[in-house]
Specification:
mainly alpha, transmembrane helix, 523 residues
Length: 523
């Protein structure tokens, strides 16, 4: 029961903290880490020791999977070069920078062990960064690059960590073994991801029950992650590739009911998992402090050095790779140089998360020949990087974006594109209606024509003045009031025994579906 108490306690704290964060305008991951740190010093309250496998195997796959499902494959492909430069190039650069810096501070510790910590703190967690980016209206491309980086950088960091740890514990490591390890991880991960996407897509296409569809969707991240890891391929890459494949084909794989239910389900899962992860990070502080082998002054000095290198390395890497690559004419023609504000805001969005702490906790207890090293110091340094980057960069990212005057996407341009495509879609729908109408009652056909026309009109209305209520907005407002009155009639009929509970629930579901369309403005 103690485990169940902890789970309920974690969820309750996540929900309460998230509500407070929204009320006071603070990013919830930051507040969750701070609350976790405070709670960690309260004896007997949520004393949970984080196991690396819980994060790397239990929590990371579904978080990556839902992120991949929501990622635009065309946008991902268009931005593949900057994404790979960040997710692979920057990870290796940060690993080396942190590793050599730490080795200079701790010359008695083997370089391989220091590089292992560099790999641990190298991958940013874009959960907080993308949350801020969406909230403050950063350009869509900036969000895409940050999301794409977060989908891949965990894989490159974990492979780098595996190689560094192997060298630190005395295993033979050379150029061939490193290339072989990386190739197996990447190629194997892609193969498992593609195979999983095809197989699970085949299954989804033949399922008619939304509940079964969602159960399969819930299992999917582990169905590709675990087999890939079993043969030493990258489970992270497998999950990302599978999620991108399924997300891109989702309109043709599932029924509308399944998609609606899956969207609501994964939003809740994502909210809870991400919240629990950041809360767990904060809860580890008390136990981590107890295992630090060095003095407080040395620990703080080392932490300042590592945090500084982590932040500066991202800035130093991002600007040259953004502009020097465009010296190549083919790249420059396809993708002109962005304004300085774009790489500047991306360079400041380098917050670390739970993967960093889980990777740190997975560091070996002893090195080659049983040699000891300050493992406790390494873990507390990883924790310090998480907290420092979350609080320093996460809290100031909105201010930095405003100071840089990062131009948001043109809403008018988006609305115009949507209206144009909606007009074509409505015309195609009307043509299909005329083909299939046959002997259908004229009243039904006319009503369907009006639905198609109203959707086309709605898209064009979004281009109008924002301070004037459009016909569609007036319709939605009035229809919402009508639905409230209808609900009250059904509720009263249930209470007086005129209809059973099942009838009320069915009517309530139909009205809720209609109201959800009103929220979007599709009726």
């Amino acid at each position: 029961m103690h485990g169940l108490d902890n789970i309920v306690g974690l969820i309750a704290v996540v929900v309460a903290t998230s509500v407070v964060a929204r009320r006071i305008g603070v990013l919830s991951p930051i507040l969750l880490v701070v609350v976790g740190i405070v709670v960690s010093f309260v004896p007997g309250l949520l004393e949970i020791e984080l196991e690396p496998e819980v994060v790397l195997t239990g929590i990371l796959p579904p978080i990556l999977y839902v992120a991949a499902l929501e990622t635009s494959v065309p946008a991902f492909k268009f931005n593949l070069r900057p994404i790979l430069l960040l997710a692979i190039g920057l990870v290796l650069f940060t690993t080396a920078a942190v590793g050599f810096t730490l080795h200079a501070l701790l010359p008695a510790v083997p370089l391989a062990a220091c590089l292992a910590l560099g790999a641990v703190v190298a991958p940013p967690d874009a959960v907080a960064a993308t949350a801020v980016a969406r909230r403050i209206g950063l350009p869509r491309r900036v969000v895409t690059v940050l999301e794409g980086e977060s989908l891949i950088n965990d894989a490159s960091a974990l492979v780098t960590l595996r190689v560094a740890v192997a060298a630190a514990v005395g295993e033979a490591v050379d150029g061939w073994s490193i290339a072989s390890e990386a190739s197996i991880a990447v190629v194997g991960g892609v193969a498992f991801g593609v195979a999983g996407g095809l197989l699970i897509g085949f299954v989804h296409k033949r399922i008619r029950n939304p509940l079964i569809d969602n159960a399969v969707s819930l299992l999917t991240p582990w169905l590709v992650f675990l087999p890939a890891e079993a043969v030493h391929a990258s489970g992270v890459v497998a999950v990302v590739v599978c999620g991108l494949s399924l997300g891109h084909r989702m309109p043709t794989l599932m029924s509308a009911a399944s998609r609606l239910q899956m969207d609501a389900f994964w939003r809740m899962v994502k909210f809870l998992l991400e919240g629990v992860v950041f809360l767990l990070v904060g809860l580890q502080l008390r136990s981590l402090i107890a295992n630090v082998e060095r003095s407080f002054a040395f620990t703080m000095g080392a932490l300042a050095a590592v945090v500084g290198v982590v932040i500066v390395a991202r800035i130093v890497w991002l600007f040259p790779t953004t502009y020097f690559t465009r010296l190549v004419p083919r790249i420059r023609r396809r993708d002109p140089s962005p304004p300085l504000a774009a790489p500047a805001v991306i360079s400041w969005a380098g917050m670390r998360g739970a993967v960093t702490l889980a990777a740190a906790l997975s560091l070996p207890v002893h090195l080659a020949d049983g040699e000891s090293y300050p493992r406790g110091l390494f873990v507390i340094l990883a924790f310090g990087v998480i907290v420092a980057t979350l609080v320093l960069q996460g809290a100031t990212l909105p201010t930095v974006a405003r100071w840089l005057k990062v131009p948001p996407d043109d809403e008018k341009e988006d609305a115009l594109a949507e209206a144009s495509v909606q007009h074509e879609a409505s015309r195609a729908g009307k043509e299909r209606l005329e083909e299939m109408a046959g002997d259908a009652p004229e009243g039904v056909v006319e009503r369907l024509r009006q639905v198609a026309q109203s959707r086309s009109n709605l898209a064009w209305e979004r281009l109008g003045r924002a301070d004037r209520e459009t016909p569609s907005a007036a319709y939605a407002r009035l229809r919402r009031e009508m639905l409230n009155a209808e609900r009250e009639v059904f509720r009263t009929a249930r209470d007086t025994g005129r209809i059973p509970e099942e009838t009320l629930r069915q009517a309530q579901r139909d009205m809720d579906l209609e109201e959800s369309l009103l929220e979007r403005g599709d009726l």
